[in-house]
From TrEMBL:
<dbReference type="Pfam" id="PF00400">
    <property type="entry name" value="WD40"/>
</dbReference>
<protein>
    <submittedName>
        <fullName>WD40 repeat domain-containing protein</fullName>
    </submittedName>
</protein>
<dbReference type="InterPro" id="IPR001680">
    <property type="entry name" value="WD40_rpt"/>
</dbReference>
<feature type="repeat" description="WD">
    <location>
        <begin position="428"/>
        <end position="443"/>
    </location>
</feature>
<keyword id="KW-0597">Phosphoprotein</keyword>
<feature type="compositionally biased region" description="Acidic residues">
    <location>
        <begin position="37"/>
        <end position="63"/>
    </location>
</feature>
<dbReference type="InterPro" id="IPR036322">
    <property type="entry name" value="WD40_repeat_dom_sf"/>
</dbReference>
<dbReference type="GO" id="GO:0005634">
    <property type="term" value="C:nucleus"/>
</dbReference>
<feature type="compositionally biased region" description="Basic residues">
    <location>
        <begin position="254"/>
        <end position="265"/>
    </location>
</feature>
<dbReference type="InterPro" id="IPR044285">
    <property type="entry name" value="PWP1"/>
</dbReference>
<feature type="compositionally biased region" description="Basic and acidic residues">
    <location>
        <begin position="266"/>
        <end position="277"/>
    </location>
</feature>
<dbReference type="InterPro" id="IPR020472">
    <property type="entry name" value="WD40_PAC1"/>
</dbReference>
<dbReference type="InterPro" id="IPR015943">
    <property type="entry name" value="WD40/YVTN_repeat-like_dom_sf"/>
</dbReference>
<feature type="region of interest" description="Disordered">
    <location>
        <begin position="238"/>
        <end position="277"/>
    </location>
</feature>
<dbReference type="GO" id="GO:0006364">
    <property type="term" value="P:rRNA processing"/>
</dbReference>
<feature type="region of interest" description="Disordered">
    <location>
        <begin position="36"/>
        <end position="83"/>
    </location>
</feature>
<keyword id="KW-0853">WD repeat</keyword>
Amino acid sequence: MISCSAWVAREAVAAQAGKKPLKGVQVDEELLKGLEIENEQDEDSWEEVTDEEQEADDVMEEVEDRRKGKKKRGGASTGMEDGMAELNMDAYDDEDDEKAFVTSVYGGKRPGGAFYRSSKEDPYMIDEEASSDSEDENDMVLRATDHMILAAKNEEDLSQLEVWVYEDFGDEGNLYVHQDIVLPAFALCVAAGDLDPRDTSPRKPMCAIGTFDPEIEIWDLTTVDSLQPAAVLGGYDDEGELGAADPPQQDGGKKKKKKKKKKKSKMPERRNLKEGSHSDSVLSLAWNWEYRNVLASGSADKTLKVWDLESLKCVNTLTHHEDKVQAVTWNPTESQVIASGGFDRAVYLSDLRSSGSGSVKWALRSDVEALIWDLHEPTSFLVSGEDGTVAKYDTRMGGGSDPVWSIAAHDKACCDLSLCASPRGRGLLATGSLDKSVKLWDLGVGGGEPELILSKKLKTGPVFTTTFTSEAKPLLAVGGAKGELLVWDVRSEESVVKKYPDL
């Protein structure tokens, strides 16, 4: 299944146009230390065995040695080793007859004349043909017209971030996976940005990932084959000490022998959280559009946190929600105003410039699934619920005010909302639901209820993510339970073109 998706800003992608991605196979030194400690602890883990069990083990070892051609007789080697010595395999390539055979068969004025010092000397070799390796490298190079899409894909035993590239050829496009990143846990949310905490000056494609773990990983999308993120916000500190293994005991005077246990993973007794960290799963992320070093996160621990990516520290924690914080979004014109929605059936509006709590609340009829600002009316926000409803609220009417409109958009939970960013497509809203449908709506400009333009099932199964690109072109990324990402150019639909002829 694809649980979430996000488009990377075109400016960040264009900055990498024509550049080959870096190879980033890196090993976390702390991880290696942890593995060494685990191995040492496994060596110290013992269990008691009887003489009969040890004798059976010795018999099995003897059978295995015989199978491998070894025989323990006073330290003497087996006949197999003597036979290998007689063959004298080390001198096999030194026989003159073999050299004469090669020369006579393949010919040439000099010994081995059929072998060339370089491919340029061989008339049957064509140097101009590109190798498959070079072709693969060229496929990794981005163009200025390319779009980059992030999609979190979760399977039974694997979670990964797939980085897709949509090649825009005008009337048609091509979609392929540029790279994938293995994640430590089930991915729940993703956000795109352009600041690398290790070097904040250049703009480059970056992303933040939230999972069932209480940490947030920041990944560099210009590097492929990385084994570790560029930075981690929050999460667990030192793993703590494992409990000491019980020493072997004597029982009934029987002779006991120690035997090493098979290696198995152990959970530490204590896991200390880093200062300022979430204490539960990270459900939502939002990268600030003006302050490149600011990231907001909502969690199942009922808190909303604001992070500074330069210091990798939490700089603000809001605790007004009474249940899981499912959605967070920055206002598109006021970069210090943030809205959040949760499973407490409430949306809060917070101004981070206010020294006090400064939060305004709207009570809803169901748990919040998705929350976005109206790009063309930034004083209003749209919210979808678990009951399939979609509603619009005007913040100028104050907290607790009634919605401007509310519609039963879907029969089941409406998991995602997205507005077309193009001014020519003003009011074009996409919704995705567990009822397997994607719907396009016209919000109009008069404040009336939305008009349904189109309802379509794209064979994604239950839909979890529907996201318009931030560019003028109306491309909609759709993902769902079947695990395939689709990019839909909604201008291919006659009903959309009829409603928005200039789109």
